Amino acid sequence: MRHPRTWWKTCIGVVLTAIMLFPVYWMINVSFTKDQNLRHTPPYLIPIDGTVDGYVSVFSNELPYLATSLIVGLGVVILTVVLAAPAGYSLAKLRPRGGNGVTFVMLIAQMIPGIVMAMGFYAIFISLGINDTLGGLIIADSTIAVPFGVLIFTAFIAGIPGELMQAAKIDGASAWRTFRSVVLPLSRNAIVTVSLFAFLWAWSDFIFAFTLDGAGTQQPITLGIYAFIGNNNQQWNAIMATAVIASIPATILLVVAQRYVAAGVTAGAVKD
Amino acid sequence: MTTTAANAKQAGRGDGGVAAGVAAPPAPSPKVRPVRSGQWAAWAFLAPVIVYLVAFYGWPLYRNIELSLHAYTVESFVNGGAPFVWFDNYVKVFQSATFGPAVGNTALFVLVSIAFQFAIGMALAVFFFQHFKLAATLRALFLVPWLLPLIVSASTWAWLMNSDSGLINSVLHGFGLTQVNWLTSPQWSLVSVLIANIWIGIPFNLVILYSGLQNISQDLYEAASLDGANAWQKFWRVTFPLLRPVSAITLLLGLIYTLKVFDIIWIMTKGGPVDSSTTLATWAYRLGFGSVLPDFSSAATVANLLIVLALVFGLVYLRLQRRERES
C-alpha cells in the first residue's frame, strides 16, 4: 500500500536524526579542523580549509593502541563463544538439574557494576602478578560478554527443533557430536550476535583497561584517547581523529549487522 | 528468553523425578540410562562456564567483601596481614563528608537520566512506528550513540561543552546569553554529565519500547479509530496502558545500567569540581585509585554498597519479568 502523504513525517524524522547525530558530526568536523581554527569564534561548522593532520598524528602514534584493542577484542570473542555456546546448548536442550539457577546467576551477573568487578580483579591480579598483561585484560573484559552470551545462546538454541537432535541421537551421535555437527552450524546467527557484541564491548571497555592495564606496555585505544585528553593536550583535532577511528567497529557493526544489533538489545529485556 | 529456560527446567525436573522413581527397582529399566547420562552430558557442557563464573565473578566479588572487612594499607595490600575490623570501614564511609553528596548525586543522576531517556525514547518509538519512507533507516541511525565507545562520546561532549572554545557556549553567546562553565563549575557539572548520559541512553529506550509497540495488535487501534479516538487519545488509552509491562522493564533496566555509569562522569569531570558530580561509582574509583595514597578498603566498601543497590533493583526486575510472563 502506498502512503502518499507521509513525506512530511520523513522530513521530521530526518531533522530528529540530524539533531541526535549532531555530536557525532561535530566529532568528525573537529577531526578535520586546523590547529589554528580550533579556537576560532564562532567555530567553523564545516571544515572549510580542512586538514588531515589529526589523522596523520593518529597513524604515527596510535597504531599500537589499535592493534592491542584488536587482539583483546578477538581474544574476548573466542573466550566468550567457547564458554557460552556449550552452556547455551546445555541449558536449552540437555536439561541439567539446577539449570534454572545457572540462568538466574547469569541474569544477576549482568547487573553487577563494572567498577565493582574492576576493584576485585585489581586485588587479585596484583597478587597473581598479572596486572598490566593482555591475558588479564582479556579475562576481565570477557566478564561483560559471557553472561549475555550464555543467555543469547540459550534463547537461540531453544528455538532449534528438538527433532533434529533426536535424529542425530538415533543415528548414534554423542552429545558432543550433536553439538558440533547439528547445533553449532544452525546457531550461526547467535554466534554472529554474541561475537559482535563481545568484540564491541571489549573494544569500548575503559574501566577494566584503566584499572588493570594503566601501566601496561600494551594499552588499548580507549586508554590512548584518555592519555591524549589527560595530557592537557590542546590538539583536539587529533583527539577527535582518534575518536573517529575508534568508532569504526561500531559503524561496521551497524551497517553490516543492524538486525543482529536490535535483536541483541531486546533479547536481554523483553520476553519472546 | 527466560521463558524457555524455565520450561526446560520444569521439564528436566519432571524427567528427574521419573528417573528416581524408576531407579528404585533392582533391575533398572533401559529407560533410566539416557536420562542419567543426559545429566552427565548436560553438566559437562555447563562445567566450563560454571568454573569461569566461580573464578572470575565469585572470586573478585569475594575479594571485595574481604577487602571491605579488613583495614588494608598499601603495604598490607601487597604483602597481606591486614587486621579484621568488622564493619569499621562501613561506618567510616557512612560518616565521610562525601557520602551525602555521592548518594544525592547518584539518586539525581539516575532519576533524571531515566526520566528523560524514557520520555524521549517513548516519543521517538511512537513516531518511528508510523509508516513513512526511511523510517527503518533513520531508526537504525539512532543506535549510533549507543554503539560508540563511551570514551568517544564523553570526549566529544567534553569538547562541545568546553568553556572557551566549545560550540554550546558559542551558540549561547550568539543568542546573547551568558556563557556557562559546563564542566568546571559546581552548579553545572552534574547537569553536563546528565546531558551526555541522556543522549547515550535514548537509543536503548527507543529500541526496547519500539519492540513493545510491535506486540500491540493493530486491531485495537482500528477499533479506537472507529470509536472516533484521535492520535492523542489512542496513545494514552491504548498504547500507554498496553506498554506498561515493557515500560516497567525498560525503566528498571535503565536504573540498573545508570547506577553503573562511571566512564562518562570520570572522563568529563572526574566527579568534580569538589564533589559536585561525584556518584557512588566515581567515588569508589577515586578512593581506590584516584590519589597517591589509595584506600582500597574504603573503595571496596563503597563498591559493595553499589552492588547491594544493583542487586535489589535486579531482583525487582526479575520478579517483574516473571510476573509478566505468568500473566
> What Rg of chain B, in angstroms, do the CA atoms define?
26 Å
- The helix/strand series of chain B, from N terminus to C terminus, equals HHHHHHHHHHHHHHHH
The greatest inter-chain interface is formed by: A-B, 108 and 112 residues
- The portion of residues assigned to helices of chain B is over 70%
Low-confidence stretches of chain B: 1-34
Q: Top keywords for this entry?
A:
heterodimer, A: 272 residues, mainly alpha, MetI-like fold, B: 327 residues, 16 helices, 0% strand, globular, disordered N terminus
How would you portray this structure in words?
The complex is a heterodimer of chains A (272) and B (327). Chain A has 272 residues and is mainly α. Chain A is built from 14 helices and no strands. Chain B has a domain of 179 residues: MetI-like fold (Orthogonal Bundle), CATH 1.10.3720.10. Chains A and B meet through helix 1, helix 3, helix 4, helix 5 and helix 6 of A and helix 1, helix 2, helix 5, helix 6 and helix 7 of B.
Please render the helix and strand layout as text.
The complex is a heterodimer of chains A (272) and B (327).
Chain A: H1 7-31, H2 53-61, H3 63-94, H4 99-109, H5 114-128, H6 134-158, H7 162-170, H8 175-186, H9 188-204, H10 207-212, H11 221-230, H12 236-246, H13 248-256, H14 258-267
Helix pairs in contact in A: 1-12, 2-12, 3-6, 3-9, 3-11, 4-6, 6-9, 7-8, 9-14, 11-12
Chain B: H1 2-23, H2 32-69, H3 74-79, H4 88-95, H5 99-129, H6 135-141, H7 144-147, H8 150-160, H9 167-174, H10 189-214, H11 218-226, H12 231-242, H13 244-260, H14 263-268, H15 280-289, H16 296-326
